[in-house]
Prior knowledge:
The chain is α/β, with parallel strands linked by helices. It has twelve helices and 13 strands. The protein has a seven-stranded parallel beta sheet with strand order 3-2-1-4-5-6-7, sandwiched between helices. A six-stranded parallel beta sheet has the order 10-9-8-11-12-13, with helices on both faces. The longest helix is centred in the middle third of the chain and has 18 residues, at 123-140.
Amino acid sequence: MRICHVSILNPVFHSRIYHKWALSQLNHGHEVWLIGQDQEAPPHLSNKLRVIPFPSFSRWAKGRFKAHRIILRELKKLQPDLVIIHTPELLWLVAVLKGRMHFHYDVHEDYPKNIAHGHTYPRLLRRILAYTIKVVERKLSASLQTVSYAEKCYENILNVPREKYIVLENKFRKTEEKPARPRLPFNDYLLYTGTITETWGVFDSLQFWAELNQHRNIPLVIAGHTHFQATVERIEAFVYRNKLQDSFLLVGGTQYVAYHKIKMLIAHATAIMGLYHDLPQIRGKLPTKFFEAMAFGKPVIFTPMEAWLAYHQQYSLGIPYFHKESDPLQIWEELSKWEVQHTPEQWAWEEKKLALFMDQHYGI
Length: 364
């Protein structure tokens, strides 16, 4: 069976799209295509897995609209049996290509809530976009053959019958992959990855790091993307104000970072920063970076939200940081005692669950 994964802002080698979906489907003998953003992606990886990359672009760039045309053109050429959509932005494909191929929608997050409570878009535009996406998702969900949710708490987002959807959680799979060590002027370092924004804790991470450096010279690497130059300037000002330029590295900023570079940095980091703010769009959810860290056996310094503490009790996520009560130096010292306590192959049973679901609905 020919299966095609499509996305706009997610990189081709996204942890969920590639490491979970694509590799699982390859294991079951399917021909898998990935169409998405990654200017460094090779034209193909194997006889069964092929990549059609388009260059990285900013959120408001013309390249974003061009990507839509590329995806539509390639789908018409490939004529896949099944298209798996990873963003609500591409749900229009269901209306245009209905009857020519099957469509599955993989819901990574509660997009309307994230947009409404986030700071990516201007305040007035947030409400309009959130409402529009909610309407589009609900209206086109009836034309989808199947749906999957990355979290159980997302089950009520779309009004689809129970037999049409599956909860396919972002559980991790311990990796034996050992990416080459990135060329850095230091060995041990703290790492912040993903969207560079205040609500994801970038400035809390900077403050933690600055306090730690009053006692130990520990570098910080921020690797991710922001649409706002002002955010980058604010970070740089903080670093210069605290005279920590020699212990700091920003990878990306207003430019996207290729996912394989992110993996390299995670694989060799001492710990991952996860100091998210306790907000409605974050509370109760488990960020992808947590699973990436666990896959490489890296501890996360995380905000002690109730759901995360519960997960920590089960899988030893890392070390919770109580802002006013915890001492960054003490946490750094605790990192040396931290041990991986993960149950191996957390994704394995989900892979079987996915295979059974696909067999029931598509006979594959």
